[in-house]
Structures are given as C-alpha cells and as structure tokens.
Design goal:
Elements: E1 5-10, H1 15-20, E2 26-30, H2 41-48, E3 52-56, H3 70-83, E4 88-91, E5 94-99, E6 104-113, H4 119-135, E7 140-143, H5 158-169, E8 172-176, H6 177-187, H7 191-197, E9 203-208, E10 212-214, E11 217-219, H8 228-238, E12 245-248, H9 257-297, H10 310-322, H11 327-335, H12 346-350, H13 362-381, H14 392-413, H15 416-421, H16 424-435, H17 442-455, H18 462-476, H19 485-499
Parallel strand pairs: 1-2, 1-12, 2-3, 4-7, 7-8, 8-9, 9-12
Antiparallel strand pairs: 5-6, 10-11
Domain SCO6045-like C-terminal: 372-454
Pfam families: MbnB_TglH_ChrH (PF05114), SCO6045_C (PF26136)
Region (Disordered): 339-361
C-alpha cells in the first residue's frame, strides 16, 4: 500500500490555509463536492505540487440492500481519474432504503447509518463491494462508521465483521479511530478489542476527528477538537501497525489555521508514541521466542545486539527500518534464523480469500436486509413505529439528529431560504421534516420544503410568501428561466418592489 503520510480533509472553507500548511503530504476531498471537469483551483495547485488527493464518497450506500447504482459508481471513478488518485474510499453504511426490492416507499437518510453485523448483511456487503471494485479504476477502501443506535441480534463484533469483509473481498480498510471512540461511548464497544480483531495489514489509512458528548451520547461532529481518548486509540493502533496514512477531519466550525496545525502535531506525537511501543513489543517478542528456541535446541542463535554477528544484524535492522512496515518481517527473519516464514505484504494479506466462493444468500438476503433497513429508516424519518428490539430512546435521538442535519444542509445548499424566512426557517423546516421524509437529494428537499410551505399558505407575511414563490419558480420549472439581461433586470426589479 502506498505510504500517504499525514494529511487533512480538504474543504473549500479552509482551502487557502491547507495550501499554506507545512507538513501536509496528502488531502482528502468529499467526492460528491468535486466536479471532474471543473476542479477547484486549490486542488489543482496541490496536485501540481505533488500532494496526493483522495476522493471520499458519502452517497454510494454499499451497506444497503440494493446493488450499487451504476451512475454513482461512474461518477466516483471519474473523480478518481480526474484527481489522479491512488485509491478511493467509501463507507460501510446504508443511506437509503425502500423501493422496488421491498415494495415500500423509497426513503433517503441523508446520513450514514449502521449496517447490522449479520451473515445476511455481510453477504450483501461483500457482493456490493465486489461490484464497486470492478467498476473503479483504482483500489477501494471502506470506512467503519460511528453510530448512535445498535441493531438487535447481531452475530459478529465490529472487528470480526471487518475481518471477514476484507478476507472475502480483498478490500482495503479506512479505520476511523474517532468512530471507534463514538461506538465505545454509545454502544459500549471496546476499541482495543476491535483493533485486536482487525486485519491490520488491510489498513489503507486512518481518520482522526473530534466530537462532543451530550446526555451520555457521543456526537461525531467533526466540528470540535480531537479529544484525548481518540488520540489514545490512535496510539494503540500505531502500537500494533504502522498505518500508511493518517488524516485529520474537520467539516464545520473551522478554527484558525494555527489550531489545526496544533492538532496535526498532536496526531504525529500519538503516532510516534505508538511506534515506540510497537518496536519495544517486537523486540521483546523476538527475545522471548529466541530464548525458548535456545532452550529447546541447545543451539546458540544470535539475538539482536549479541556480539556474534552484531554489525550485520544491526545493519539489516536499520535497512528494514528504512522501509516502513518491514520491522515485523525483519524480526520474523531473526526468529527463523534468517529464513523467511512468508513474504505476504499488505496487499496480499488484504486479498486473502478474494477468489473464494461467496456465501449463499443472493436476493433472499437482500430482501431480508432491505425490509429491516426500510423499517428502521421509516421510523427515523417518517415517524412510523420503532422496530422491535431497538432502543426507542436512542432511535428518537437519532431521528432528531437527522432532522437537524437536514435543516443545516438545506440551509447550505439553498442559502436563500434562511434569508427569505429569517428566524422562522429552522422551526418551519423541523416541523416539515417530521411528516415529510426525504426521497431525493438535499436540493430536491429544499424545493419540496418551499412547495410545502406555499401550499399551506405560508409564510403568513404576504411579501415574504411572494418572495419565496419567486425563489421556488426560478428553480422548479421544466426549463431554466431566461438569462437574458433584460429579463434578469425585470425579475430583480420585481423582487426589490416586493420587499418594500
């Protein structure tokens, strides 16, 4: 796996700061926010400087019951090619449910929701990942997600689920240590146990991010500083393996560049602390194993640092250390008296079982998974009863979080709506979200929200209502309104008069 180094999530709000930031080896950009034919100038300049750019998808829904959409796969492939990326990444999550497979209404979550860790879900996920791998021009890595809720009757731990996924498909893993912390607080899952069960050789890179706790629930906000527990998990991971890359995520509430640089420094120190522990463990293990071998065979096998062969051994150790990730193979050589026990590298390890036969399941597994996901998503966004076995309080917390996120994102993609509606916007949108689940993207959601208000004779103020109607007509017609200067001037004059 290509060594990426230390990186940061590229966002338009901090693009200039990222360009000037020292020690940035690579960046990650949200794939859906990048247009292949019109790359942002900042990303183009970074690429020209040799900075790697990785597209990070959020809408593919690989953990959903349906097979991946060809259009979305093509779009992700185009972004990878436009950016010259060595890999692309997505999430182990479902983001939509319903439709023809389940004969239920199509629903969009607008958020990453957890996949049940069951055999059915694993079979479906493995097939979806293989479909994506065949469609993409570069390797795929998938990320563990944070969750507020747990599925009842799960059959595997997170580590076991990820191990089988990598073993059966050869897919790389993007391990988010902040999400491990989130699941520790929200689902009582042990991060150390998850790390111990992971196929460490399959790791493509690592995410680090901040969040906050409220009423016993951890919210993975990506809008707060990275807390000490997350850095401790990063150190634990680095004590087990040298990750090819580590990236700081920040999506909102951007601080001054100096604060981001301080966080990157904390991440580097956490990695260094883990590397020290890893070397200590490797040396102790090598010494203990050699001592046992000496006792069993009665032969003298030189330890690292023994007078016999010291110079050669130390030199080989230094050579191995010069190639990141080779320390363990070098120590294995020492244990075997110089004979290799295996040359498996990260790629080969991740591909174990990639050519094995898939588990049975087929469309039956898809339909069972689809019905379960549709029932949960309907409870979250359409107010239907919570499925049996779920924590109703947590489902309520997740439902409110999804509605709040919808309001925030719609305000970003259609900033005119908060301007037109003023203080009434958020209250009106949250009331709308309680009865109107999202069935398309956020831009469609903005238009549907405006239409919902207008059909109810709102807003109450006539001038505001006329302005909202003008906004809606501009964007919802079968064809764009004329861009001729005289027509644009007429519309602008009318808007100005409406505001009087």
């Amino acid at each position: 796996m290509e060594r990426l180094g230390t990186g940061i999530g590229w966002r338009p709000e901090i693009a200039d700061a990222v360009e000037r930031m020292p020690g940035i080896d690579w960046v990650e950009a949200v794939a859906e926010n990048v247009c292949p034919g019109h790359l942002p100038d900042s990303l183009r300049r970074l690429r020209e400087r040799g900075v790697t750019v990785v597209p990070h998808g959020v809408s593919l829904g690989l953990g959903g019951a349906d097979r991946p959409d060809e259009g979305r796969l093509t779009a992700l492939a185009e972004r990878a090619e436009a950016l010259g990326s060595p890999l692309v990444t997505e999430h182990i999550a479902f983001v939509r449910a319903g439709g023809a497979l389940t004969a239920t209404p199509h629903l969009e979550a607008g958020h990453l929701l957890p996949v049940p860790r069951t055999r059915d879900a694993l079979d479906v996920l493995c097939e979806n990942v293989r479909i994506a791998q065949e469609a993409l021009p570069v390797p795929l890595a998938v990320e563990n997600i944070a969750a507020l809720i747990s599925w009842p009757c799960e059959e595997m731990t997170e580590g076991q689920f990820l191990y089988e996924l990598a073993d059966r498909t050869g897919v790389r893993l993007l391990i988010d240590v902040a999400n491990l912390h989130t699941n520790h607080v929200n689902r009582a899952e042990d991060p150390a146990k998850a790390l111990a069960e992971l196929p460490l050789e399959a790791i493509a890179y690592v995410h680090v991010a901040g969040g906050f706790e409220r009423d016993g629930v951890w919210h993975d906000s990506h809008a707060h500083p990275v807390p000490r527990p997350v850095l401790d998990i990063l150190t634990d991971l680095a004590s087990r393996v040298s990750p090819p890359g580590v990236l700081l995520e920040r999506d909102e509430n951007f601080p001054e560049p100096a604060e981001l640089e301080t966080e990157l420094g904390s991440i580097r120190r956490a990695l260094e602390a883990g590397a020290v522990e890893r070397v200590k463990t490797e040396v102790r293990s090598a010494g203990a194993a050699l001592a046992v071998r000496r006792a069993e065979t009665g032969t003298v096998v030189p330890l690292i640092g023994d007078a016999l062969g010291e110079k050669t051994t130390v030199r080989r150790h230094e050579e191995a250390r010069s190639q990141p990730g080779d320390e363990a193979r070098f120590l294995a050589d020492q244990l075997a008296g110089g004979a290799r026990r295996g040359d498996e590298d990260g790629a080969a390890g991740a591909a174990r079982g990639a050519f094995g036969l898939p588990h049975p399941g087929g469309d039956g597994a898809r339909q069972r998974l689809g019905l379960a996901q549709a029932a949960l998503l309907s409870a979250l966004v359409a107010g239907t009863p919570v499925p049996e076995g779920f924590d109703r309080v947590r489902v309520g917390v997740q439902a409110r979080a999804l509605a709040a996120k919808r309001a925030d994102v719609v305000a970003k993609v259609a900033p005119e709506l908060p301007e037109i509606l003023g203080a009434e916007y958020r209250t009106a949108f949250l009331a709308y979200a309680q009865t109107q689940p999202m069935t398309g993207g956020y831009r469609r959601d903005a238009l549907t929200f405006a239409e919902h208000l207008l059909s109810a004779g709102r807003p109450g103020d006539a001038a505001t209502r006329r302005e909202l109607r003008e906004w809606w007509l501009e964007r919802s017609g079968p064809a764009p309104r004329s861009r001729r200067p005289v027509h644009r001037l007429a519309r602008a004059t009318r808007k100005a008069l409406l505001r009087r």
